Structure formats: structure tokens, C-alpha cells
User: Fold alpha-glucosidase from Penicillium fimorum.
Amino acid sequence: MGIVKNLFAGAWLLPAAYGAFSTSVAKGLASHADASSTTSGSYSQFTIPSSADFGAKLIPNVVDPEAVDAQSVCPGYKASNVKESARGLTATLTLAGEPCNVYGTDVDSLDFSIEYLANDRLNVQIVPTYLDSSNSSWFVLDEHVVPRPTSNHHASKKNSDLEITWSNHPSFHFKVTRKATRDAIFDTTGSVLVFENQFVEFVTSLPKDYNLYGIGEHIQQLRLLNNLTLTLYASDIGDPINDNLYGSQPFYLDTRYYEVNHKGHHTLIANDKADQSKNYVSFSHGVFSRNAHGQEIVLNPEGLNIDLTFYSGPSQVDVTKNYQLSTIGLPALQQYFTLGYHQCRWGYNNWTELAEVVANFEKFEIPLETIWNDIDYMHGYRDFDNDQHRYPYSEGEEFLEKLHSSGRHYVPIIDAAIYIPNPENASDAYDTYSRGHKDDVFLKNPDGSEYIGAVWPGYTVFPDWHNPKAGDFWANEIVTWHKKVAIDGIWIDMNEVSSFCVGSCGSGNLSMNPAHPPFSLPGEPGNVLYDYPEGFEITNKTEAASASAAASSQAAAAATGGAPPSSSTSYLRTTPTAGVRNVNYPPYVINNDQDVHDLSAHAVSPNATHSDGVQEYDVHNLFGHQILNATYQGLLKVDKKKRPFIIGRSTFAGSGKWAGHWGGDNASRWAFMFFSIPQALSFSLFGIPMFGVDTCGFNGNSDEELCNRWMQLSAFFPFYRNHNTLSATPQEPYVWESVTAATKSAMKIRYAILPYFYTLFHEAHTTGSTVMRALAWEFPTDPSLAAVDTQFLVGPSIMVVPVLAPQATSVKGVFPSLKHGEVWYDWYTQTAVDAKPGVNTTIPAPLGHIPVFVRGGSVLPMQEPALTTKEARGTPWSLLVALGGNGAALGQLHLDDGESNALDESLDVSFKVKGSSLRASAKGHWEESNPLATVTVLGVSEKPHSVRFNGRHVPASGVHYNATSQVLSVGDLHKLTKEGAFSENWTLNW
Ligand SMILES: *[C@@H]1O[C@H](CO)[C@@H](O)[C@H](O)[C@H]1NC(C)=O
Ligand SMILES: *[C@@H]1O[C@H](CO)[C@@H](O)[C@H](O)[C@H]1NC(C)=O
Assistant:
């Protein structure tokens, strides 16, 4: 048996007492004072010293040989006062011995409760009995921000899929069992519960070789490794592998495969024991830990107020839908245009350059839907304020008018932090700050002064989302600015929330504003980018050699440029003080991936204080979530009829209600192209289907081969954007001839299947289904697919098998379920794939070709590819019918105006093939005027005698049958569907 050990550093209920003016603030000032004379030679601006971002040196508990194992010293609890009912149980847990106070102060009395919320949903809570004691109030997550799961009044213990048992011997523990399999899905037997004011720990066992997914945000493979510490703490850091990242998603999916004997008895099987000749069933369940604190999940090769909700499935689809419908909310419905192609980079210098990029897309006839701006457009990196030399409002108005009339869109970045002007410089006034300051909506220090950190503009303040006026402030800024720049969506960045210094480093230093960040920007002296993707040294030998030489000399110069900055040499260890929380330096140190592991490094410090007294410590992981909500409400104020389009960096459980997400600052490396797939699939589980990564890579330079493969891969991701860092070589798809061709060929498919993509999004928005799917989810009875993340599905019908390695001309892929009669058709040849069940098949994939397959049994609604989604949306329809092994096929289409919130006019068409007959039935009031042009049927084994559309003969000139490929193509249908493809129900017979 394996063990999952959950170390929740910082319980969710914690005293919100105002601490002393923190050490981190004092440190920020001190390090500032010693470096304020340091002005960088090449910039007239003051540079915030890099030491300002150094925290105290800490050893994370998971790697600290001296760290005490709470399991070995803590007494655990005993349950008493047990009250059972048909819907659950309540009990009191009392400390079973002397408090251990190992990483905080033990809570002596807890309320334990079990509630059967629905027959497929169960909640377990453990909360301190005394929510208010004389010297502390406890912090409870706001249900408006993080909703609790809903309950169904029919639920009962008797009818639940799950059963929960508990025992006091040797100390309190509990076990959740799935009735159908008699298998424990969560079991704390053999461990003690530890519940302190800054530390909660419980241990559950897992089967050997478990299949766990989720627990974000991390860059990792889809199925979690058996030997991993997963830290959850929102961090502004460029995509390290396995470490904590921008968002916090405390949810996991656990899938188990069983062999069922003739008596119906289930035997759990280990993945490596799976046998292709046998039949299996799988049961999946999900667990949501409703906790926003920094936390760690330690997965060993052998396993919060606690608020756990179990979703019994039994399929991934059931779990994911249940999790969204009952708890976190359904994903936002996206506008149709957002599925078009997005181009971005850091370093588009002015409107003229932006216009040139757009013109280049037109010239090379590459579809472009949306042009994006990074922070270049801002006046001194201030939100809601354009640089009047490079991005003047007047020129912007002309640019946007032209852009919009071509059917295209514009989305700029907005950062979480707000510049605070230099009080000694009257010309530095900044209205956004003045308005927010007047309404008092910014985060505070414990002493009540404004908390002043540092981000791109220099010293900055941060909106306090607990302040009831902050949402209005933010919305008003968006509305005001929108009148000057007619944006079509917002890209929210730096919302972890990031700050480039420890503590309130700007307090007392505002006369230095505006200031340069405490590090050099890409392209600045000492930070010239010489990185290229693997394989560049083969394709571009000479350039690679000179880049490598230049990189070495840059590194050598840095080494002689003085001692590398370092924090103090000794480690800081915190011993708990009875009843007092140390929020800046909690006694249990999580493995936060910032340098030196300090929670205040590169983030707003945990002791920053909200208007209701709550410390950032308790809600750090929610900042990103709340700014996304505020931005959503702001865009509704701009236009209440339009669906807001938002892409955000830091997210929490439920952020999908408002925003999509991109993978953050990845690098132009092959590994990151691969990791984009598991990252997308994980966000499918988190209810954020609108996901994509910086195509061709952000950090470092990209190259022709990587960009060629990546532009093709991302064409099948919901959010399709190419983005690049400052000073890196350009990587727009028109830069290299082969990339232009590869991009156009993949986009031809994407733009043709936009109606399919959109239908999937509508379904996700209404039911909680996913858009990008793992093979294991669509084929749940095959244990060999449990870890597959090198290929994926878009909805149920399209499978993509991308090349993920340099210098390859083929790729290996599996074709699931062949032994059950599944048929797969090659997108390009339209013929059925000849492959063996369970065998990794070699698929030819020369550069510029991405293998795509259509699953038999599907009907795909398509329109013609075009340069914009608007243009594509105005073209005639076609249907691609891929017959399944049994000759049947099904499909769906959802249509509406593609942008409004009110969905009173929509059309839902269902397609059904039975025998040699395709039936299209439409419901709804949206009038679709585009006619139907062609229906292509794959897998037709015999030439049809005649083809009829609603009983009328289709002229022979419109019918083509290829006996070799078994493709039937029926054209000329627009004459029969002049009123629109779906204006009446119809049947096509062949
Ligand atoms: C588990 O991971 C740790 C840290 O990365 C490593 O030192 C150790 O060798 C790994 N153990 C196994 C069994 O893989
Ligand atoms: C815009 O930026 C480009 C590229 O940096 C530069 O060459 C050009 O002079 C700028 N044009 C204007 C009008 O500022």
C-alpha cells in the first residue's frame, strides 16, 4: 500500500489577530537603505536593489533532516458525543494526550462531521469547536469566494455510493469505502490526526501504483509520479517542473481498474499487471480539499478546518461534472472569436509595429483573430494608462477601428499591482492610484499604512478584494479606460500576487519612483538571450556555436561582476509560541519554490492585511481568483450583454467561471511543448477548459523546427496563442517559410472544426464536460491508457498524436479500443487506420504534418476555413460523418450569435446515422442562414445505388464514391438547403 501524506501547513481556521510590525517589512527597508545608492549605469532610473527580493533562508520541512515527524510525537484525538442520522454523523474530537505543539499550537477540541450530500457526493469536515476564543478569532473561507458543495435533500447514508466508518483505536481515524467494490478510497488508519493553528496533517493510504491526477498548479506529467511533494502556493515563477506554480487547485482524481469475476467480485489490479486480452472496469473518484492555505501533498512510493468532499463518479466524466455542478461552478461560455488564433509578444513597440504584424498575417494569408499587447503599451507600466509616445490614444482609435472592421480583435495585459506615484514629483500624478487611495481600497500593513511592494512600474500597491469598494474601483478603471481603448478582452497577469521585493519595501522610498525592477530585463546588458531549443545545434550549427560562445562570455562576465547576491548564510528556524501565529515564518516550512523558500520572496508578504482584518497568509491563494472575478464584473459593466473574455495567470478552484488560463512563462524547449498537454488535461479536471500555452515558447529563442511542430500542436488546444519574451528572436508563424506552411495546414483543420470546438465549449458551460480529454477518460476500461499524455482527444471525436521530439519524422501512438470494434480514420486520407490493439503504432509525421484522427461513430459539423472566425462563420456547412464499426454515428451542434450572455436565441442540432441514413434534427430559434454544401461519409463499404436528400434524388453529378478509400461524398446540397442548412429537419439516405 502507498501513502499520501497531506501536510497542510497552516490550517484554514486561524487567528486573524494583528501581529507586530513584521520582520519582513523591517528587512525590506534595511536592504533598501543599503542599496539605494546603487543606480544601474545604463539606466537613468533608480533600480530596486536585487537584495530587496531576498527573503530569509529557510529549509523546507520535506528536505530538512532535522524536521520532526509530527506523526511520531503528536497524540491524535478521541471521538465522543457521536450523533448519527440518516444523512450523516457529528462527533467531538478531543486531544488524546499531551499537546505536541510541533508546528503551532494544538487545538484541543474539534467538531467532526460527515454529511451525505448526494448519493454520489460526501463531505467530511473537521473544524475547531471554538470559533471565537478570548484572544483569537478564526478565519473561515468566505462561501461567496469559495462555495461549499451543494446538497440534495434526497441524499442518505443508505443510498450513497460511499460509506464512511471511523474508530478510536488506537486514536481517531476514518475510512471512506466505495460500496460497489468494497475498496477503501480514503483511509487514515495507522496515522494520527494533527490539528494546530498553523499546521494540519492527515495521512491516507493509496493502492500501489495508484493513478492520481490533478493537484495544481504544476508542470508535470498527467498521471502524478509516485514519489513527489506537491506544494500549493501561488508563485510568480517561470514554469519550473514539479514545483508550485501560479495557481492553487486542491483537487485530485483517483482512477482504479478492477477485474470483475462471474460473481461480481472486484479485484483491484496494478497497472503493470494489466493484460490486453482481459476486460476491466474502472472506478474514478474525486476529492476536493476546500482550503486556500499553502499546503503540501507528499506522495510516497509506499501516500484543513479539514473540509474534504468526495465525488464518487464512478467515471471521470461523472466526477468532473459533479465537482463543477455541485461545488466550484461551470466554466464561462467563451465568445466564438476567442477560438480563433491569437498573436502576442513582449516587445511590440508601438501601434505601427502592431499594425505591421497584422499586415504580415494578411500578406501571408495566415488566419489571425486577435492581436495582443504585453506591458509595452503602458505608460511606465501603469495599468489603464497608455504610453502617449508609443501607444497614443488617438492612433489607437484608428488602429482599432480598422482592426475591428476586419473582424479582428485586441486584447492587452493588465497587471494586478497599481503604481504609486512619487510624492515629490507633481507631474507623476496617477489618477488610478488617486481614486483607489481615496476609496481606501489597497492592501495594508499591520499598522494600517498602505502595503507598498514592487512590480514592473517600481513601487506599487495592491487592490484588497476583501474591501467591498475594491470591485467597483476595478470595474470603474476598466470602464474608464475602455472609453479610450476599445479592448475585446483582458489578460490578467502578476496576480499570485507577485511583488518583486520582500515586505512593504516601498514604504519610505517613494521618492525613488518610478523604479526599475530589481533584475535586468531580457535583452538588457548581462541578460542577452542566447538560449535555443534542443536540435538547433544540428539545424543551425554556426549560429548555435556563436550563441554558445557568447553565452559563456556573458556568464563569465557575470561571475567576475562581484560576488553573486546571497542572503544570510544561516538558516532561520521558527519555534512555535503558544497561541501566537507566525504568519511570515510559519514553523512548518513548505517547499515554496522561490529562492530561499521565504513566503514573502517575490510575493506580497503573508502579513499584508485586508480591510476585514484577514491576513494575506490565510488567503494568498485566492488573490488571483478574486481579481479574475472583479475583472469579469468590470467587463460586464463595459457591456452587460457580452461574455467577458479573460485569460488569467493565477487561478483557484472555480476560476473557470470567469476566465481561461495560459500555462505561464514556459521556455522555447521541446519539454515544454510536451508538458503543455498534461497541463491542459489537468485544467480540464479543474473546470478551466479554456487553456493554452505560449506556443513556440516564451523564455529563450525559438527555432524553425520547434515552432513548426508547436504551431501545429496548439492548433488543437482550446486557447491558441503564440507569445514571446522581450528581445527573443521573432517567432510569428510568418517568420519561417516552413512554419507558415505548417501553420496554415493545421489552422485549416482548426478553422473547419470551429463549430465542433464551440459546441464542446457550450456543453462544458452547461454540463461541466471537458473539451481537451485524456485517452483514459474516453476509454475507461483500458488500464494501459492510464498514464498516456503524449496524445489526446479534442472532445470525444478527434485524436491528435503530435511529434514531441526534435529531428523526428514519425511518432508512435496508440489507437484505443480497436479490440472492441473502434475505428479510427486518418484526417488527411479519410481512410480507416490499420493498427493492432494495444500496440504502439509508428505513424509517419514529417516536419509540417501533425497526425490527426477521427473516431468512428462521429458526425463533425464543419464550415470552411477562413482568415477570421467571422468570415468562417459565414460560409456553407459541411458534415464529416465517420462511421463506427457498427455503421452508426452521432454528433451535436450548438449555434447562437457567439457573443451574448442571453442565450434566448440558439439552435441545437443533433445528427444520427443508422443504417444508411443520416438524420439532422434541430431545436431552437437561432436562424442559421448558411446552406449545407457537402456531406462526406467515411467507411462506406459499398457504392450506393442512389442518394436522396429528404426523399429527393441528389443528382449524380453531386455524388462521388471512392471504393478504395470507402469515402462517399455528397455535394451540391446547397441548392436543396437554400433557406439554411438546418432550417428544416432532414434525412440523407444512401
Ligand atoms: C524520490 O525523490 C527524491 C527527491 O527527488 C529522490 O532523492 C529519491 O531518490 C526518489 N526515490 C525514488 C524511489 O525514486
Ligand atoms: C515603432 O517601433 C519600431 C520598432 O521598434 C521603430 O523602428 C519605429 O521607429 C517606431 N515607430 C514609431 C512611429 O514610433
Observations:
- Residues 76-328 form a domain with the Immunoglobulin-like fold (CATH 2.60.40.1760).
